[in-house]
Amino acid sequence: MGNVQILLRQHVGAPCAPCVEVGADVKKGTLIATPTGLGANIFSSVYGKVTEITDDRIIIEPAAEQPDEFVPIDVPEDASKLDMVKAAGIVGMGGAGFPTGVKLNINLAETPLAELDPEINPELPADFKLEHSYILVNAAECEPGLEHNIKQLVEQTDKVIRGVKYCMEMTHADKAIFAIKKKHHDAIKHLEAALKDEADISMHFLADIYPMGEERAVVRECLGVNLLPTQLPSAARSVVVNLETAAKVAEAIDEKKPCITKNLTVRGKLNGGNAAHVFMDVPVGVSVGELIEKAGGIDGKYGEIVMGGAFTGKSTTVEEPITKTTGGILVSVEFPDLHGANVGLLVCACGGSEDRMREIAEKMNGKVVSVCRCKQAIESKPGAPLKCLRPGNCPGQVKNNLQFKKDKCEYIIIGNCSDCSNTVMASGPKMGLKVFHQTDHVMRAVGHPLYRTLKISKEVSQDIDF
User: Fold this and answer.
1) Does residue 394 contact residue 417 with C-beta atoms inside 8 Å?
2) What is the tens place of the pLDDT at every residue in 190-208?
3) How high is the pLDDT of residue 465?
4) What are 399-412's pLDDT values in tens digits?
5) Record keywords: DNA damage included (predicted)?
6) pLDDT of residue 394
7) N or C: which end of the chain has fewer CB within 10 A?
8) Is the backbone peptide bond immediately before 211 cis, with ω within 30 degrees of 0?
9) Separation between Cα atoms, residue 411 and residue 289, nearest integer Å
10) Looking at the predicted structure, is the pLDDT value of residue 385 above 60?
C-alpha cells in the first residue's frame, strides 16, 4: 500500500481542520480532523505515521502491518444513537456527502406535509395528505455501470436493514421503503426474504432509467409527490438515505465504528475485460491508481479516468485518493476526434456542469460555439449548481436543437437524463445534428447501451399505502 491521502473536505460544507501533527502515530479510527462548520469528523483509515499536512489533505505513511482492529468512536456510555452517527463522521455515501447526523436530526412524526406546487403536481387532489412518515432507502444504484450498492444489499442485507431501522428510530419515521430497480432480481429476492416479518418496511420498484436515484426522484417514485428544486424530502415527511449510508449507521451504533472505508466499483478499459470489479471496505485515502492495478490495470490507450459516475463524476488522475463519497473509478475508451468542428453543449442538471462538458468537448477536439440549457434546469441562485424541476421526466428539446442549428453546430454534446436524451433524439438528427452524450466514452468502455432513444417504459407501478 502506498501513502494514504486523507482529504480534509469529504462532505458538503467547509473543510475540516487537522487535529494531529506531522510525526504523529495513528491507528485505524484515530480522529485526525474535525469540522469547522457544516461537516463531519475525519479519521485515519490505516495504521501509520503522519508525514505531511497540506492545505487540503493529511498524508499518512502506512505501517507494514495493518491489524483489523480499529479505535472506537469516543462517545459517552449514554450517548444517543444520533450522537454516535455524528461522532462516526458518516456522510451520504451515495456521492452527495451531506453529513448524516444533520440529515437524521429531524422528527418526521411532527413534520407536516409542506405546501405542494400544483403546477408540478396536477394529479394530486387539493386535500392530499400523507398519513405516514418515511425513510426512503436509495437502492437504485443510479449511475450506470456501478454494482457495489447491490452487492452490499445481497451480502449484508441484515446490516442494511438494521441501519434503516435505526434511521427510522432516530427520525421517528413509521415506515420505510426500499427504492430499487426492478432489474435487480437477486437483491429483490434477498430483500423479500429479509422483510417478510417487517410490516413497516416495503419495496418500490423503479424503471432502469437515469436518474432514479436523485432524492426528489426517489420521493416522486415512492410517494407520488413532486417537490420543487428548493424543497428537501422533509417537505414530503421523508428522509432519503443511501443503502451504504444505512449500513454505516448500523456499524456506528452496533460496533462504534468510525466511517473509514468505502465500497466502490472499478470498471472500464481494463486488462481482462470490462466486467465490474467491486471492492468492499477500501480504506479512505487509497489512490485511484492502486485500485485500478488491483482490478487488472489499464488496457492500452484510454480516454480518461472518471472518479464517481459517468454522469456526475469528474476526471481524475491515478495519484488522487478516494473519499467517503467515491462510488466509482471508470476508465474510458479514447475520445473521438471532431477535428475542430463546431459543437453545441446542452447542459442538464442531471449530468455534468458546463465546465465538465467543455472539458469533454476539448478532449474531443471540438470548438464550442453554442451553449443551451434544458428548460427544466433551474439555478436557485447565481452560481449555484443546477437543479432539475422534474428529474427524469423531461420536456422536448426542439427549441434548443433549433438554436444549435442556427449557431451552425455540426455536433452537439448532451448531458441529459434518459428521458431528456430521448427528446433530443426526436428532433436533433432530423436537423442534421450529430449527437454525442457526455457519457459515451464511459458507456462504450463498460459495455452499457449509449444514452439516445429511450427503449424502456418509464412506468413501473406499485401500490403505496398512503
Assistant:
1) yes
2) 999 999 999 999 999 999 9
3) 39
4) 999 999 999 999 99
5) no
6) 80
7) C
8) yes
9) 33
10) yes
The three cell numbers locating residue 329: 473509478
Question: Is the pLDDT assigned to residue 461 strictly greater than 80?
Answer: no
Domains (range + CATH), the chain: 4-62 (2.40.50), 81-255 (3.40.50.11540), 261-331 (3.10.20.600), 342-446 (3.40.50.10700)
CA–CA distance, 133 with 46 (Å, rounded to integer): 39
**Residue 86: which region, alpha, beta or left (left: phi > 0; alpha: psi -120 to 50)?**
alpha
Which cell goes with 211? 436518474
Instruction: List the grid coordinates of 269.
Output: 478499459
The sheet carrying 31-34 orders its strands as: 17-18, 31-34, 42-43
C-alpha grid cell, residue 292: 485500478
Q: Are strands 175-181 and 201-206 parallel, antiparallel or unpaired?
A: parallel
Residue 440 carries which side chain, given as an amino acid letter?
Answer: D
pTM over 0.90: yes
The pLDDT tens digits for 355-372 are 999 999 999 999 999 999
Rounded distance, CA 404 to CA 13, Å? Answer: 37
Output phi, psi for 188, to 5 deg. -65, -40
**Computed from CA positions of residues 155, 161, 167, 169, in that sequence, does the dihedral angle turn out positive or negative?**
negative
Distance CA 130, CA 319 (A): 49
Q: Report the pLDDT value the prediction gives residue 101, as an integer from 0 to 100.
A: 97
